[in-house]
């Protein structure tokens, strides 16, 4: 009580922010707009994340237990692994939305994109210093902060290791409680392990829902530790087992992609449209994007290795001016310039990509009723059925 009165007094003197920050970081009484909705998160995961039974179970259990514990013994550290388009960014935004009421708009949710924040491999020491200072400052302001590190496969090795002291079982260090924070790492490294098991299970006639996390977690940890392109390359975060859970995202099947497209239509008020699924080429598995997303594809470096083409010919040339919104959920970089491209793209853009995903993420203006037009990328036929 005396401390609270002192806090109010200091606020009138202009020093309240610093005192309040310290108080919030070590006290249970300051919630930093913290409004966890555990049931809402669980419902969202099971309703809107398709084909990811392990993700639904791991995330709902891990986040639920962590948020219900008023005094956790260590922070929650989740590492998402799988191909682009399988739901990693979607799930991370769900976590933010059901803790702070907004996907990425809260001042207590911090997202880092290596190509934007850590682009140069020769500045590792500077990045380490900047990252350490940023995390500690924001944990002092709010102990329940969420830190999301996207595209860990593009993170210069050594940068992320500066967080090792923050991820362990420390209670209060330099007046900051590190044990209430949530860290989410997102990476495509390890997707080969996930895809291989998914393919082998399918060939053996095993249901994908029978795949267990313990069949993949150790292999994923080895993959990120030994991959020179991984931000976790030879990282002590891996050897010290500071990751709470490795979360594998399976490749999607056709039925999951169709549901993803249908959800996108419903969000745009066009649930009644039945032509989307029928436009899928029955001879080839697909990636689905909105037509505008596919047209703007060359401007989205995060997805540059997945080159789409449209199976229908005769499409007109479109001038695409992306809106001021993010290129993908949580992206804080500058919007791309206007561009003009034709569809379909030429055949040399068709890689033999092994994954089916749902990537209608580019935020661009609507141009026609065909905004949910299906565009495709060639993938291995073993994963195409259903």
UniProtKB/TrEMBL annotation:
Subcellular location: Endoplasmic reticulum lumen
GO MF entry, a single one: ATP hydrolysis activity
GO CC, alphabetical: endoplasmic reticulum lumen; nuclear envelope
Keywords, sorted A to Z: ATP-binding, Endoplasmic reticulum, Glycoprotein, Nucleotide-binding, Signal
UniProt family annotation: Belongs to the ClpA/ClpB family. Torsin subfamily.
PANTHER family cross-referenced by the UniProt entry: TORSIN (PTHR10760), TORSIN-2A (PTHR10760:SF4)
Name of the protein in its database record: Torsin family 2 member A
Native species: Anabarilius grahami (Kanglang fish)
Upper classification of the organism: Eukaryota, Metazoa, Chordata, Craniata, Vertebrata
